[in-house]
Please model this.
Amino acid sequence: MTKTHLLYEGKAKKIWETNNPDLLISEFKDSLTAFNGEKKSSEVGKGALNNAISTELFRYLGERGIPTHFIEMLDPNNMLHTRAEVILIEVIVRNIATGSLSRNLGIEDGTVLPFTLVEFDYKNDALGDPKLNDQHCLILGLVKEQAELDYLRYMARRINTLLRDLYAELGITLVDFKLEFGRDKNGTILLIDELSPDNFRLWDAQTHEKLDKDRFRQGLGGLTEAYTQVLERLQNR
Model:
């Protein structure tokens, strides 16, 4: 598969068109950003780790009936996947209160929520990715009808159950994470983007050591070591 044209470059990936109009290649970058791009850096090997971790999780979910855009990992930094029109809603899934949920609502950090919380954010950097309710999504035309929002929530909870159980087997607590979805050429909604510690909060179940991008956000260091630990646990399961 050959890259033909750079379609989009984001904070963590470059998206390339290919000689097949229905297929794209995601090139995972080593760059790091936090706080809406206010904090920036890079770490050699981070992109390859995110590609490998995402590959493991896309395969795992696909084998269990979750429709995704994933096709194959081409090399350490490049993933081949189906072209999909991005739904501009970030689906946030929370099992434990931390980060913005604790700051905004005063829930003590580390509190296990009584049920899994699913939130929607507007995928819009210029506006700072504000929170959305269902009516906002419909007014903005981000989905065609209420049933699609219900489907996104259903899929988010189903994915959460699968990944929370998987990570629990690996001695890791799935705290919260962000999902993105898109529509293929037939209008089918697919899970897209990446499934990496850049977008997931993962804590060691015994030590509570952070194994995700909070190591960069909070200046803890050891980010690639933490990501490597996540990948090795997935590959050795």
In short: The chain has six helices and 14 strands. The longest strand covers residues 172-183. The helical segments are 46-62, 99-105, 134-139, 146-169, 214-217, 223-235.
